[in-house]
Amino acid sequence: MAGSFRHKQFGAIILLDLDGFKAVNDTYGHNVGDQILIEVGKRLQSVTRENDLAARLGGDEFLLVLDRVASNADDARENSSKVAIKILSLLQQPYEYGEKKLVLGASLGVKLLGQEIITPETAIIHADQAMYEAKNAGKGQAKLYELAA
User: Fold this and answer.
1) pLDDT value at position 46?
2) Which of 33, 48, 77, 79 has the most CB atoms less than 10 A away?
3) Which of 60, 67, 74, 75 is labelled catalytic?
4) How many CB atoms lie within 10 A of CB 18?
5) 56 phi-psi bin (left φ>0, alpha ψ -120 to 50, beta other)
6) Do 84 and 66 form a contact (C-beta atoms < 8 A)?
7) What is the DSSP secondary structure assignment for residue 20, as one 8-state letter?
8) Which pLDDT tens digit goes with each residue over 19-51?
9) How far apart are CA 40 and CA 52, in angstroms?
10) pTM score, whole prediction
């Protein structure tokens, strides 16, 4: 966040929650769930750049911090949306378990990091609010956090 402010570049936080993960854990057990979480981590790392960060927050929630996605808000929205769509596509691809192919989705919340000064906790709360908006809108999609007018 400090880098975005200092370099006058927008970054983004993407918070995601897997859709359907509890059913996998309940049906196939925690060992299978753990293997899926590992695979999700690998898939997320495949879309991050060297200066980005992908991390598991806990349970089936993950956080991505994208560094320097654009120098203006419009391009930052567009570039973050492209990354979110790529993530959704990657996470919807089947997960192989023995002879079974398990399909999950994800709901994503995106918070742009720009020239406003907020705490990391507030940025995560905003991304979380957007993620729940995506879940409430039918899951399997991404929503950008926007300030209420």
Assistant:
1) 93
2) 33
3) 60
4) 21
5) beta
6) no
7) S
8) 999 999 999 999 999 999 999 999 999 999 998
9) 16
10) 0.90
